[in-house]
Amino acid sequence: MVERLVAPLRTAYAANADDAELVRLAREVIAGLSGVVTRGMAVDPRIARVIDHVRTHLDEPITLEALASVAGLSPSRLRHLFVEETGIAAKSFILWERINRALALGFSGTPWTEAAYATNFADSAHLTRTCRRMFGLVPTAARIGNPQAASSDA
Question: Looking at the whole model, is its pTM more than 0.85?
């Protein structure tokens, strides 16, 4: 997956492509690695349905079996295809989407406990532990430009 994303950028760089083209290709690589679909990058429609389902159901438990049903695949096949298409495991993608949505809610003024519940964390402490494990910071310290210490609680 990564090699497929990077190959056009490598080829353009070796051919001394102009900066604008290199920037465009680099953005496509970053978008592909982050799970964002750009117009030039086709994703298996079954995986696209799974991604959409995850993003619209972050407030409830999401199982591999439920996602497999959305995709019309067996859980085992979905697990392999998801990694092949996105570069990360479905479970990791779900957690990434949950934490990012919780942070967006919290930074937009939603109380942290409500942000945690809205993204299916057990409580704000669970959100805080997960954020600290993933980013090394508590949610309130994760905001760019926030001088709050990483050791404080959300």
Answer: no
